[in-house]
Each structure stands twice: as C-alpha cells, then as structure tokens.
Amino acid sequence: MKDHRLRVNLDMNLDPDSPSLAEEQIRLQRFVYAMQVTTPRVWVTQAIVAVNVVVYLWMVITGYDLLADSTSHVFLEEGANYGPRTIGHGESWRLLTSMFLHGPIYHIGLNMWVLWLQGKLVERMMGNSNYAIMYLASGLLGSLASVYMNPDTPSIGASGAIFGVIGAMASLLYRHRAQFPKEMRRKLIKDGAIFIAANIAFGASIPNIDHAAHLGGLIAGMASGWYLGHPMTREGIAGRTARGLKLSVISALLIIAGGSVYPIERMEVPLGNEEMKPHVEALDTLRADSLTFAKDLDEKRLGGQLTPDAAAESIRIDLLPRWRKFRENLNAIEPATGHGIKLQRAIDDYAAISYELWGELALDVRGRLVGRERFNTLVHERDAAEAHLIKLWRSR
User: Which CATH number among 3.30.70.1520, 3.90.78.10, 1.20.1540.10, 1.10.10.10 corresponds to the domain 2-262?
Assistant: First the structure.
C-alpha cells in the first residue's frame, strides 16, 4: 500500500493552466515530497561548503596572506588558475584546485552563503550525483573560460561553479514552473539575482574579478540544469543516472577539447615570463647584493680599513665571479618560447654590461682608469639594457 501511494504521489499531475491557490499548494506539496523521498539528504552541498571552509581555515592557520592579490605567489603556488601553468605547462589540475581557494573573508563568505541557500534546493531537484556533476562541470568550464579570456591573470574562487548553481536553478525553475507557486519562483529568482548583482558590484569596485569564469559557469549551469531537469515521476527519476553519466562525458570532452585547441601562441609572453622568472629574480638579488657590496667596500676604504688595491682586489675576487657565474647559469638553459629567448638575451646583455662596469670600477678604485668615457658609456648602455628588459617583461 505504501509503494502504491508513493507511485500515485509521484505520477499524478494537475492541469497547469490557471491553477487555483489550492491547486498550487497541492502541486508544491507533491513536488517537495517527491524531492524529499528521492533525495533525502543534501550531503553534496554540505561537503562542498565544508571542503571550502576547511581549506580556507588551513590557509589562515598556516599564515597565508589572504588579503593578497590573486596574482600573489601565495595563490599561484597553492593552485590558482593561471594560463601559462594551467595550459602552457600542462597543469590542468589548476582548473579544479582554483575552485577551492578564496581570498578575503567576504569572498568565501558570500560564495558559501549563496551555495548553502540555493545549492540544497538544486541538489534535491537533480539528485546528489547529478548535482555534483553539474557543480564540477560548471566550475571547470568556468575556469576554462577564464583561461581563454584572461590567460595572464591568475584567478581563484568558487564563483564560477556557484554561478553554475544559479544557472541550473533558473533552468529547473522554468522546467518545473507548474509545480512552484509564483511567489516562491520570484523569491528564488530574486536570491539568485542578488548574488549576480553583488558580483557585478564587486567587479566594478574591486580589481581582478573574474567575469569570464562567472559567465562560463552560468552558461554551463543553465545547460546542465536544462539537460538534467526531469519530471518528478518514477520514470523521470529512474533516468537520472543515465543523464548524469552522459553529461559527465560531454563535459569532459568539452574541457579536453577546449584545452587542446587553445591557441598557445596567445600565451607566449606570459609563458616566457613564467620560465624566466627565476632568472629575473636572481638578477634582482645580484644587483641588490652588488650595491650593498660596493657601499660596504666604499665605507671601509674611506675609513682606512682597506687600501685601494685591496678594495679593487675584493671586487675582482668576490664580486665579478658572481656575475660571471650568473651568466653561465643563464646561458645554460634553453627557453621554450620566442619571448623567453628574447628575455634571456636581454638579461644576458644587462649582465654582460654590468660585469664590465664593475671591472671598470675596480680600475677606478685603483686609480688606473684611463679616462671616464668608457665608464660613462657603460652606464648609459646598462640603463638602456635595463629599460629594454623591463619593457619585455611588461609586454602583454
């Protein structure tokens, strides 16, 4: 008898045309009952929120600067979505890990609040496994859209996937519009619109908001919700698994195809910067150390602690070999991109001029510099080489 009643509750439909208030309430009760029976627990939404919160707390406890810009190494090293690494270096796992990283408290707070409010209803309408597939598909496709539109800007956050939840909600509300009273539909649509408006407002006032991921996630969520939406009947619910498997295959193929056909030449500049970054950082360190070395040397020489010959010898023995070793390490690599090759040459030009300039300074300290023309020429050449290097580094 119990199974018979459940079948009747799931299979009955009333005329959706001009429903009375009583009919609306009956439809809603029947719909809610069917959702509760077929999806009694919304553990996927709960698990997603828990994972995001745990990751955030872990980063807080371990001392990460979560107020840093998303371009900070804090997020790059922990899994931010960044074109030169995600696509250029084959680190496709960043499409996923970036979905669980957040910056300031309001970032994760807004995302998890909306996910908690909207996600549970969408999960009940779709079923646990299909909801998980939709969430991941929306997030991953949103991350891929971000790489396409902003290849040289790192991005983090669950917003793309949550926009997918909002998009799925919109599709499901339309497909099940006969079961929901108008006021409830308006309330759900209003909540989703507030989230979208809040993100647009943040985007207008806060730099680096990833609108590409939001739009990609929204479209993916709407398409997923439309495809996975089904009548709350025994037949409709029985087809959930097959539809979910088909959607997962389609999403995987779209992600693989999108990543494989990406025009890699668009990323040559950030790729070149990425592979040459350690050498630029080493150059900055060597420059700073050289200036400190020269300052200490000058103080000791003026204080009578070093003779001019001893100071010059110190430059020859202690400083010049560091510049020579830097050039050897630099020229031992083979950059993979045209931009990387240009950067390598620019860095080497700067280092070669600096090496000669420090040698000239050693002669000057000894009082053996024959005229200052060459010295002055080297200073101008070094400044020009530095300007060229900076221009290459900043090119986009």
Answer: 1.20.1540.10
**DSSP assignment of 164-200, as one string?**
HHHHHHHHHHHHTTTTS-HHHHHHHHHHHHHHHHHHH
32 closest CA partner among 134, 181, 137, 153? 181
Cβ pair 217, 141 in contact under 8 A: yes
pLDDT digits (tens, 9 = 90+) for 111-152: 999 899 889 989 988 889 999 999 999 999 999 999 988 888
Tokens linked to 186:
């308006």
Measured CA to CA, the distance from residue 227 to residue 244 in angstroms comes to 9
Closest CA to 107 of 150, 59, 153: 59
Rounded Cα distance, 166 and 134, in Å: 11
The answer on pLDDT for 367 being more than 70 is no
Tell me the pLDDT band of 280, cut-offs 50, 70 and 90. Answer: very high
Helix (H) or strand (E) holding 261: none
Pull the structure tokens for residue 132: 């998980």
